[in-house]
Design brief:
This protein is α/β, with parallel strands linked by helices. Helices cover 25% and strands 26% of the residues. The protein starts with 7 loop residues before the first strand and ends with a strand.
Length: 310
């Protein structure tokens, strides 16, 4: 892989408190609690974004029509846009089946094709078309009863039409996780694992706390939230042109969907404020390389695990 990203400087919170870090799963990963140091050119890019902001009227309209924009997204793209997330069991071992040698240390057990008998429960929040849950099933990690929810009813329909969807051990439903809708399907303290992967960034920052509070209510004592999202000064943030910035670190894409870019200490603070313990949390600087297409893109994510105390 290519060399690690440029040097970084400590974030404000990381000078006073740090948390355990992720393992570097890919050669060339930089795992850190430090926010990227901007070059003069990058600072100029961010300053340019402020010259024409999204109007308040436009921002409110985007919020009101968030479901509509995601429904249109899945109408256009169906299952073709996002790649299956085969990396999740490598970076979140909580998703591994008990039959997996990495978990039990023995020979893998045979998958008999029957639904799991376990009472463990998993919720994929913002499931899209099932790019996390279906790779788990394909690879034999079926130790959970799987719930999957998304703001877009069209996305949920695509999940339900998938050839691996099986209502004996799965349920997919549309809901807005920023509201109490989810409790119409799931009881409080009913989940062992919840995944929040590239989802919180699509929500208005004013609703972050309510969203995390709802997730906290869903988790069993000892339950864990697996989190990954866009990190502060990720390449995608720097590339936005004037007319796309809604608020600090919050942007509108061309298709009307939105994206927020998180600081590592900000994520830790938000989860702690609603009651979670921070197990691990860090920036991951990673280069996305496709030699065939001559692509070499530096990416920045925030990745963590957060536990509801016993």
């Amino acid at each position: 892989m290519a060399e690690a990203p440029e040097s970084t400087v400590p974030s404000k919170e990381s000078r006073t408190e740090t948390f355990p870090k992720q393992t570097a799963f890919n050669l060339g990963d930089l795992v850190t609690d430090r926010t990227k140091t901007l070059t003069d050119a990058e600072r100029a890019q961010l300053a340019e974004q402020n010259k024409r902001m999204v109007t308040e009227y436009q921002a409110q309209k985007l919020e009101r029509e968030a479901r509509k924009h995601w429904d249109l997204f899945y109408k256009r793209n169906e299952t073709r846009f996002f790649k299956d997330r085969h990396w999740t069991t490598r970076e979140f071992t909580e998703l591994l089946s008990e039959r997996c040698p990495a978990v039990n240390g023995d020979e893998p057990q045979v998958d008999d094709g029957h639904p799991p008998t376990t009472t463990k429960t998993l919720l994929e929040i913002g499931c899209g078309v099932g790019n996390l849950i279906f790779p788990l099933i394909e690879e034999g990690h079926r130790d959970f009863f799987i719930y999957a929810c998304d703001l877009s009813p069209r996305a949920v329909e695509l999940v339900q039409k998938h050839n691996l969807f099986d209502d004996r051990y799965m349920r997919a439903f549309a809901c807005d996780i920023t509201t109490d809708e989810v409790f119409g399907t799931l009881a409080e303290q009913s989940l062992d694992i919840a995944t929040l992967i590239f989802v919180l960034s699509a929500i208005h920052p004013d609703k972050f706390r309510t969203t995390l509070s709802n997730i906290y209510r869903l988790m069993k004592p000892g339950g864990v939230v697996l989190f990954r999202d866009y990190g502060r000064y990720d390449m995608a943030q720097l590339r936005f042109k004037p007319g796309h910035k809604i608020a600090e670190n919050f942007y509108m894409r061309q298709d009307g969907t939105r994206s927020y870019y998180f600081a590592e200490d900000e994520v830790s603070a938000m989860f702690r404020d609603v009651g979670f313990e921070v197990l691990v949390n860090s920036y991951i600087h990673r280069r996305t390389i496709n030699a065939k297409e001559n692509i070499d893109v530096p990416r920045i994510f925030v990745q963590g695990k957060f536990r509801r105390p016993d």
